[in-house]
Amino acid sequence: MPKSNPRRDRLADKIDKEGFFSPPCLRCSEMSASNMSCECKRISSNRKCNNCVRSGVKCERDFHNERKWQNLERDRMRLAADLEDAERSNDEALARLSETSAKLARLRKHKRFLEARNKAMLENDVALLEELDSQVSWPVAETASLDAQLAAVTDDPSLSQMMNSPSFWENFDSAVAGGIPSPTGGNQSSSQ
Fold this sequence. Notes:
Elements: H1 6-18, E1 20-21, H2 26-33, E2 41-42, H3 50-55, H4 66-135, H5 140-154, H6 157-164, H7 166-176
């Protein structure tokens, strides 16, 4: 083996620092087989690896054996299958996300519609109540008189008996609707 040369050492250090890992040459393979720490690095402008430059020997590479090719192909197929599974999972997740986003958009739109409908109905009812209140204005004295009459009537026991009768409520409904109340008790045809 040739003596150490500062130029070779400097070039080997440069290749070691800036080079890329490559499949090991025959010498690096032998070093690895004998349990020596060995990194086979090259730079594109130099055919020799860092270890062969440092040692001053010819850097020979042999064809890769069948086992290495099989291992490489197995790894490539495993990676392709893993990649396909990951892409399928990603597509399914995106589809679920799209469906969920569409549902969320529909629900938000429906909520806005119901809120607008609620507001419109509330405004309509308030406006109708204000209109009714403006049309029916009871004088304060008349309201007090009606309250007194109602209080006097509710103490009358015959009134509560009369209110329990179904015919009372039929006549009450027709009187409120502007009709003529039918006589209580008996047949309507006999009263004509």
